[in-house]
Design brief:
two-stranded antiparallel ribbon; 4 strands; A middle domain of Talin 1; mainly alpha; two-stranded antiparallel sheet
Amino acid sequence: MDYLLLVLGLGLLLVAADLLVDSSVAIAQRARISNFIIGLTIVGMGTSAPEMFVGVQSALTGSGDVAMGNVIGSNIANILLILGLTATILPFSIEREISRRDIPFGIAAAILIFLLANDSLVPGIADNTLSRVDGIFLLVLFVAYMCYVVIAKGKNPQQAVDEAQEQTQSRLAGKHPAWLWSIAVASLAGLIFGGNLFLDSAKNLARAWGMSEAVIAITIVAVGTSLPELITAVVAACKKNPELALGNVIGSNVFNILFILGLSATVKPLAIVDVNMADYGVMILAAVLTYLVIFTFGRHKMDRIEGIGFLLIYVAYTAYLLLR
């Protein structure tokens, strides 16, 4: 029964997140908010909505391992699985703007969360906790990063306008405001209910299999909540536009660490028990490998052989988790 509830909860999360983004975009456009701001906030955060709701609900229920494991697992899957699969389908170029700004920031965010969450590295501290102060600090960094992105986009305004127009196409544009608000509220309720269903069934499966909540979160929960990014990447690659995958993945990884963990820890401090050094290490390694790929043969391109390498590392890490 838990398997069915897991799939049902995940499906509800994904559908509700998609409808919430569409209705929110349409509402924002009716309020005459600029497409650029909409694309940077609502659309940009849309694919991470499942991780956000799972993270906050995990914090509220005292499941710090699930909140942290979900973010670590999602970030690893985003790079090794999603980028690996995308490059295997169709190799793609890496824009210099992403390689100079976003990828290094993603590496820094991964290292930062490792340092903040491992208090036991400090002599005299036994427990690992992502405190409320840590959460607020991450949220402040997220705001600073978003401001930096806005300033950087301002240097190429026409490109920003073109990207914004492409991002903010809503299927619900032109619908009556009352209908849009009804969909938004129903979608939000669906996210909350689906998140609870997904989380509870994942915990039950962890207990039934004799596995820790952290391992379940890094594998099943993380891949499930990363499905929007995975679907977006595969569709982009099949449409001969795989470059979209990289920006989506890097942005999602930074959002996961700074906003989702920041918000979760601010709501309620996260006690980290079963997430170990290897998990943080693989997350940091994945971010660093993405940066190193830029310099292979000096082509700023991710080739098929590199994509296959990413997939093999992901399979090896998953096997290690299951054996653990």
